Amino acid sequence: MGRAGGRGATGAAARVPAWLFLREFLRNPGAMGALCPSSERLAARIAHQVDLSQEGWIVELGAGTGAVTEALLRHGVRPERLIVIERSRYLVRHLRSRFPQVRVILGDACDGSALIEDCVPLAAVVSGLPLRSLSAEQVARVTRAWCAGIGPEVKVIQFTYAPRGASAWSDAGLTWRTDETVWGNLPPARVEVFTR
Q: What is the pLDDT of residues 111-126, one digit of tens each?
């Protein structure tokens, strides 16, 4: 991982995520949700929503190649406080190599907090899951599973490429707090924040 602060790989290793992301997209487009990883600008806006003063673990769902993971570390999240959940074993291998101090779990976000039973309390759940390209059943399982285990101070941060519309997090019982459109991302994306 580079120096403290969590800088990502450089040189040849930094180019690896693009082809790795494309390969995973071709294998399972619905699970990836986009043709390329989140831009640095989008990742930074997502990370900025995490309150570093809030006690507890930061959980990232669907880390892909680690664009948001890197942004969270740059934002100041300590690596030992960050848990990444990813269901692709190839991406998990990449993430563990790129971020050796971060706890990376091979698992399905549908299993909710059962994946992290020993890690309470939570401070934030950062979701890179493509909720609009997953089945309705998967989306309901993910959102219900994670909403069940969070307290009133926990933020759920989700980005979406949909310019408007209701969120599955609201359907699962959370309250929308704010959103921001990141126009510099291709395509433009909205960063939404929810709480109980």
A: 998 899 888 899 999 9
Contact 194, 164 (CB under 8 A): no
Residue 94 maps to which CATH number? Answer: 3.40.50.150
CA distance 2 to 12: 14
User: Which conformational region is residue 112 in: left (phi greater than 0), alpha (psi within -120 to 50 degrees), or beta?
Assistant: left
Classify 85 as helix, strand or coil: strand
Structural domain includes residue 17? no
Tally of structural domains, the chain: 1
Structure tokens at 59: 């959980």
pTM of this prediction? 0.82
131 falls within a domain? yes
Classify residue 144 as exposed, middle or buried by CB count within 10 Å of its CB (0-12, 13-18, 19+): middle
The torsion defined by the Cα of 83, 85, 86 and 89, in degrees rounded to 10, comes to 70
